[in-house]
Amino acid sequence: MSKVKSNAFLYALNLLGRRPYFSFELEKKLSEKGFDSEEISKVIKKLTDSLLLNDKERFKALIEYYQNSKKFGLERIKFELLKKGAQREILDEMLDRYYSREVSERIKEELILKKKEELKDEEKYKAKQKIYTYLRRRGF
Known about the structure:
Number of domains: 2
Strand content: under 5%
Helix content: over 70%
Order of helices and strands: HHHHHHHH
Distance between the termini: 47 Å
């Protein structure tokens, strides 16, 4: 395989040195910088072949992060990943593969208990409504 030593490749390496990217995010960054599509395709292929760019691992890491650290539900995770530019077909497949419904239920119960404790002085109806709204915002 020929060596790609273009400015696009160096720019992509610089971006990847700061944080991981999806291939579609990197493509967008490179095109915004003014590189042509043929050069971008070569750079993405070279980075993918050298395992510096791996969309499946990026999906897995982000889904686990949003679920376990941020404590988001399925809908909020979907929203966050679509906001990053993920394609819906790929996103649905990755969520089926890496999203854990059991962990989600456990997290939902933890959030309910936490919110109940915070709202113990509220009227029962208002507290229930606030808990429901809180869970909806978090994607449950």
